[in-house]
Amino acid sequence: MTSSLRWCAFLLSLVSLGRAIILTQNDASLVSSTKYDFVIVGGGTAGNVIANRLTENPKFKVLLLEAGPSDAGQLELQIPFLCTHTTPNTAWDWNYTTVPQAALNGVSISYPRGHVLGGSSSINCLVYTRGSKEDFDRYADVTGDKGWSWDNMLPYFKKSERFTPPADGHNTTGQFDPSVHGFNGRVGVSLPGAATAIDGRANAAFDQLGGEFQRTLDYNSGSPVGFGWSQAVIGGSKRSSSSTAYLAPQYLQRSNLHVLVNSKVSRILQTDTAGGLPVFRSVEFNLNGAASSTKVTASKELILSAGSLNTPQILLNSGIGSSSTLKSLHIKPLVDLPDVGENMGDHPIITLAWTVNSTQTYDDFNRNTTLQNQEIQRWKQTGQGVFVNGIAQHIGFVRVPDTSPIFSKVGDPAPGPGSPHFEIFLSNFLLGTTPPTGNFLSISSIMLTPTARGNVKLNSTNLFGAPIIDPQLLTGSTDVPLLREAVKSTLRLVSASAWNGYILAPVDGQPTATATDAELDMFISGSARSAYHVVGTSSMTPKNAKTGVVDPDLKVKKVGGLRIVDASVLPFVPAGHTQAATYALAERAADLIKADHS
User: What family does the Swiss-Prot or TrEMBL record give for this protein (predicted)?
Assistant: First the structure.
């Protein structure tokens, strides 16, 4: 059978299997004999955007390599409420662990990353927050490229987004600002699709307290400070991931798009030299755990979209990084880029919880298999009910006053006076391990302006060994003080009279409003964890800058043929969950790539 006929048979199998992509070892030789214009490493949040947008041009032939399995048919990856069941210790998670974190009492923490088509967009908790206008204006300033400014990026946020009515069809007037959203994009975004017992009380608490708990119509407007209804990547009643959105059946059927799952990339290879620079357009991968590797080459560009942990790992395995460090690992240095794997930024998070006088919380659905299965059937049959919701009904962004003593000796780490220092979101159940009995309210705080910087390094010369991950959480000068303020703010929120008769008591060991700063800091060091919003390990810097990993056009410095498109290029964590920013980043990157090859 000729190569073209085999691909036709393969594409027909995709149609018959719906969204499932099932490949055998035989497909490796077929892929290696096909000529591609672009090869994308990583079928995650960003990589699938690039695959979709490049194959809009029928002249471009694209191969997308994903290390994990297909997401097709996996209920946990489809049902919004089950988002907390996707990690850790599942086949969809890389199941990474950090080194001991000094500021967290020396514990090593789990560090989930998506190991499935869709990447972390298939396993995260669905929250859709863009960050602030000033986040993106700072990206523009530090890179010298106005294209990364808020005004230039807002069209890309809109381009990626398909704002969708909530599952219950309720009137959303006054719950969001349509003018800042997109309605014709790929990724479904929606407001909560089922009311909860805390909705009225939360809104009443915001109004009673005012001040730091002021309302905002839409925190995705670029001016996020204030509290409003949560927005999540849900289309109708289902999770909308980069896989379901950008690799929907109508896109998978494009003859110029080939997707290979279970294909783990080990390294990229130099193919030639141009203009005095080494050119990297080949990639080695192992399909379905095979002992032998397969090589494939792109004629135009190789694009790394493996994420903030795996992208630097692949670069380092390939001899691109700090020459001295690579030599110590007996890896031949090919390109000296000392910042590969450095400048790692992440958001710390802490959750407080209270027992409540209600039987209308969601806790029973997490501990009672019978109830959970009943609700799954309801979701399947009607697209309604508890399981159409994610983890949060309300989200707020709070800014510490400029006069705070926190900033008396060091500068304000926020990118500007309109940016928040922390996020607060409310959940109608206990986040974390659910105890056998009890009903709970959880309120989580994310510190949005970390100054701590960690790193990702190689563990050994084992190409597929887990990297050494050290986010150095809460080691920045303002990190603990600002997270302490977030905890204080949360305690003030539950002091509102709206909670009278509802909140019964804090969970054991949790601080109260009378706690001292020292007691709060002790609680933080024992309870804070990562929000898994990892960026910075392949940071953008100005063109010709001696620091950084990529130029503002996302081309890797000192090499040719290689570009990075994922959250690792962001030099700072935005004031929000990172998936919305990653979608917009990838949409702009697709336009940059198209312009270079038009």
Answer: Belongs to the GMC oxidoreductase family.
Alpha helices in 285-342 (DSSP H): 307-317, 323-328
Q: What is the mean pLDDT of residues 316-323?
A: 98
- Does an H or E element contain 374, and which? helix 369-382
User: Does 9 fall in a domain?
Assistant: no
Question: Number of folded domains in the chain?
Answer: 1
Q: CB of 485 within 8 A of CB of 422?
A: yes
Given a cut of 80, whether residue 546 has pLDDT beyond it is yes
Residue carrying the six token digits 């691909």: 7
pLDDT, the chain, mean:
94
The DSSP secondary structure of 117-164, one letter per residue, reads TTGGGGTS--B-----HHHHHHHHHHHT-GGGSHHHHHHHHHHHEEE-
User: CA 197 to CA 495: how far, in whole Å?
Assistant: 18
Distance CA(194)–CA(428), nearest Å, equals: 12
The DSSP line for 389-408 is --S-SEEEEE---TT-GGGS
Give the percent of the chain with pLDDT over 70: 95
Of residues 403, 376, 398, the one with CA closest to residue 388: 376
265 known member of a binding site:
yes
Contact (CB, 8 A) for 113 and 307: yes
CATH code of residue 200: 3.30.560.10
Active site (catalytic) residues: 533, 577
How far is residue 497's CA from residue 201's CA, in Å, rounded to a whole number? Answer: 9
Q: Does 126 belong to an annotated binding site? A: yes
Strand partners of residue 259: 64
Q: What is the pLDDT of residue 15?
A: 37
pLDDT tens per residue, range 283-312: 999 998 888 899 999 999 999 999 999 999
Which residue carries 């997490």 as its tokens? 366
- Look up the pTM and report it: 0.96
Tell me the sheet residues that pair with 422.
398, 447
What are the Cα distances from residue 178, in Å, to 171, 172, 221? 13, 10, 10
* 127 assigned to a ligand binding site: yes
Instruction: Return d(Cα 121, Cα 226) in angstroms, integer.
Output: 26
Let me know if residue 57 belongs to a domain. no
Q: Would residue 151 count as lying in a domain?
A: no
CB 151 within 8 A of CB 242: no
Q: Mean pLDDT check: name the lowest of 280-294, 344-358, 473-487.
A: 280-294
Domain residues for the domain of 356 are: 81-112+186-240+345-457+471-530
Residue 91, C-beta contacts closer than 8 angstroms, at least 6 positions apart: 68, 69, 115, 116
Task: For 451-491, give the DSSP string.
Answer: ---BEEE-SSS-TTSPPEEE--TT-STTHHHHHHHHHHHHH
Span 515-526, pLDDT tens digits: 999 999 999 999
φ/ψ of 108, rounded to 5, equals -95, 135
Distances from the Cα of 99 to the Cαs of 309, 350, 366, 443, in angstroms?
14, 19, 30, 27
Q: Is 389 annotated as a binding residue?
A: no
- Taking 50 as the threshold, does the pLDDT of residue 228 lie above it? yes
